[in-house]
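Intended use. Records such as the KDEL motif-containing protein 1 entry shown here are meant for training and evaluating sequence-to-structure methods. They are not intended to support clinical decisions.
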Amino acid sequence: MFGCLPVVLVQDSPWVSWLVGEIGGPAALVPGEHYIPIRYDLMDLVSKLNLLHEQEEEAKQLAERSERWARKYLSYDWVLFFLDRAVRRYAQHIDTSVLLDF
């Protein structure tokens, strides 16, 4: 197994994350495509690990998709692009008429 890419396991959580989204909301990562979801109480952890071991080729493909996603969307340039878009969208909601003139 050395030299293999890791498969990402994401534990269910009551917290909202932009990576895995919220119930009914958009998410950056797709379960089964970029990561393996694990129950909050971890009751399915062993069975999911066994399944990954049994389906090694599928696990490798999932890990490769995750790595490609991370290299693209977690790069320095992409983060700057995202921040630029976020600041510009936020600026559209600012009422400039109340700004003080110094």
